Amino acid sequence: MQERRLGYFFIVMASVVIVLAGVKFAATIIVPFLLSLFIAIILSPTYSFFKSKGIADMLSITIVMGVFLLFLALIAKLIGNSVHDFSANIDTYSLKLTAYYQALSQFGANFGIEIPVKEISSLVNSKELMRFFTSLIESLGSIFTNGFVVILTVVFMLLESKHFIAKIRYADSDAQTMEHINQIFTQIKSYMVIKALISLLTGFVVWIFLSFMGTDYAFLWGVLAFLFNFIPNIGSIIAAVPAVLITLVQFGGVSSLIVALFYVVINITIGSVIEPKVMGRGLGLSTLVVFLSLIFWGWLLGIVGMLLSIPLTIMAKIVFAANEKTKWIAVLLGSGENLESEALCA
Questions:
Q1: CB of 177 closer than 8 Å to CB of 204
Q2: Which ranges constitute the DSSP H helices of the chain?
Q3: For position 344, what pLDDT does the model report?
Q4: Are 159 and 57 in contact (CB under 8 A)?
Q5: Local structure of residue 234 (DSSP, 8 states)
Q6: pLDDT tens digits along 102-151
Q7: Residues 102-111: pLDDT tens digits?
Q8: At what angle are helices 126-142 and 235-251 packed, to 10 degrees?
Q9: Closest to 345 measured CA to CA, from 331, 326, 329
Q10: Which of residues 151 and 204 earns the better pLDDT score?
Q11: Where are the domains of the chain?
Q12: Are 245 and 101 in contact (CB under 8 A)?
């Protein structure tokens, strides 16, 4: 009996490895599909609102997608100009940051403290650091290289949404199956819509503040704050680094410290106060699981996997909870605050 269980375990693990290898190999196909799915989830409340007002399906789709594409075109235009200018000035910013390293070394030497400038410069290469953030923005933009396919998929998903649940109900009349499907869609939709609005607020506030400070490419850093707010735990930290460095290069240490403090305040206010109140009880995921899911989905699907790590993990948790044999995995993924209720939900 023990040998049979061990054999079953190895078969399951081998199957998981094969599936993950297949997903990673097919990432170029899966990533646009997932992106389309979550864009459709975010836009679905607006689409449903227009339909509830008696507006025809095609007209509702045209309005929703028209506004969305107009918004994307405006953002793409502004980001494109900023990225081009920023890339052209990378060498200038890099030289100024290196000068700050040398000034820091001289300051330490006055107090008898030796600061290894060469080691710091090699460890934190200014030029490569700047290039890293521009490549991040460009890689996010490259996701939309097959933009027509993504947009077309979103349109078909929105049109199909009103029939999807009915199809599932007809194919499988099991009430428990329907309950789990509804649970998946409700939680994912709630998370994605609320997170998108909160991220939009974060990006807008960052843009306004950096514009007030006079930091170069304030709009670009606002967009970066919006996007990276989807990445749990470290996203806001990553988004703050380029804005702080640019402010340091432009205005010196005091202004960069003010910007750093602003990022701390805005992330504590929005991330620790506003977001938990709006989202209610929370995601029901362990903090460790949130961080590990970021690493796992990022490795599997790249930058899109990092942005969608939480909704994908929530989906996996609910799917695991639907089966008695995998229920324990759903409990392990949970926060552990209410084990009895989590076990019942699982």
A1: no
A2: 2-25, 27-52, 57-88, 90-110, 117-123, 126-142, 147-171, 175-213, 218-228, 235-251, 253-267, 275-279, 287-301, 303-307, 309-321, 327-333, 339-345
A3: 46
A4: yes
A5: T
A6: 666 666 666 666 656 565 555 555 556 556 666 666 555 555 555 677 88
A7: 666 666 666 6
A8: 130
A9: 331
A10: 204
A11: 178-279, 281-346
A12: no
- Contacts of 296 by beta carbon, 8 Å cutoff, 6+ apart: 305, 309
100-132 in b/e form (b: 16+ CB < 10 A) is bbeeebeeeeeeeeeeebeeebeeeebeebbee
98 burial via Cβ count (<10 Å: 0-12, 13-18, 19+): middle
- 100 has pLDDT over 80: no
Global pTM reads: 0.73
Tokens of 167: 């199809």
**Tens-digit pLDDT profile for residues 4-46:** 667 766 777 888 788 888 888 888 888 888 888 888 888 888 8
Q: Which two tokens stand for residue 182?
A: 């509804």
Q: Which two tokens stand for residue 187?
A: 């939680």
Bigger pLDDT: 116 vs 53? 53
What is the C-alpha to C-alpha distance for residues 243 and 142, in angstroms, rounded to an integer? Answer: 23
Are 259 and 207 in contact by the 8 Å Cβ rule? The answer is: no
Residue whose entry in the numeric block shows the structure tokens 């196909």: 29
| Longest CA pairwise span in the chain (Å) | 79
